Amino acid sequence: MNLSDEAAADGGPGEEALREYGLDEGDIEFLIRQRRRVELNAMTSDQFVAWLVGKLEEHGKDKVIPADRVLERHARRIVARRLAVSRVATLARELEAEVSRTVLPSGLARLVGREMERSPELPWEGVLASILGDVTPEACA
């Protein structure tokens, strides 16, 4: 593929492990003795996909379906995320209703403008938060 190689860091699998992975002596020479490697990201996206599809076909594989325990763990994560989204949406509606009853200082634009004239380096959001000080829904209920 004429990809650029680079110096390989120390560590990684040894010669015996590489043989078990199916590498031949030329690959082992390149990786272990010459301490060189080629990163997968040296390929273009099209090259990588073609290489990967070729390897899957070479080994008679198609899409991978994980083991039952992996599928179950991931399925539970999906259900938990859905539950969290549902609960957050409910909480957000409740909070919006609660804060809609909060009494805010009148003339917010005037107050923010006056403070920003004194401290123009401050963002308006920070100024507004400062003006609100201790205003909370509980304080107004």
Textual characterization of the structure:
The protein is mainly α. It folds into 3 domains: 6-58, no CATH class; 65-100; 105-141, no CATH class. The chain is 61% helix and 3% strand. It has 7 helices and 2 strands; from the N terminus they run E-H-H-E-H-H-H-H-H. The chain has helices spanning 15-20, 25-33, 45-58, 68-100, 108-118, 124-132, 137-140, and strands at residues 6-7, 36-37. Strands 1-2 form a two-stranded antiparallel ribbon. Helix 5 (108-118) packs across helix 6. The termini are far apart. The mean pLDDT is 87.
Keywords, please?
about 140 residues; mainly alpha; two-stranded antiparallel ribbon; 7 helices
How is the topology of this model organized?
Layout: E1 6-7, H1 15-20, H2 25-33, E2 36-37, H3 45-58, H4 68-100, H5 108-118, H6 124-132, H7 137-140
Antiparallel strand pairs: 1-2
Précis, in short:
The protein is 61% helix and 3% strand. It has 141 residues and is mainly alpha-helical. α5 packs across α6.
- Classify the beta-strand content into a percent band: under 5%
Mean pLDDT: 87
Radius of gyration equals 30 Å
How many DSSP H or I helices? 7
Instruction: List low-confidence stretches.
Output: none
> Which sequence of strands runs across the widest sheet?
1-2
Shape estimate: elongated
**Structural class of the secondary elements?**
mainly alpha
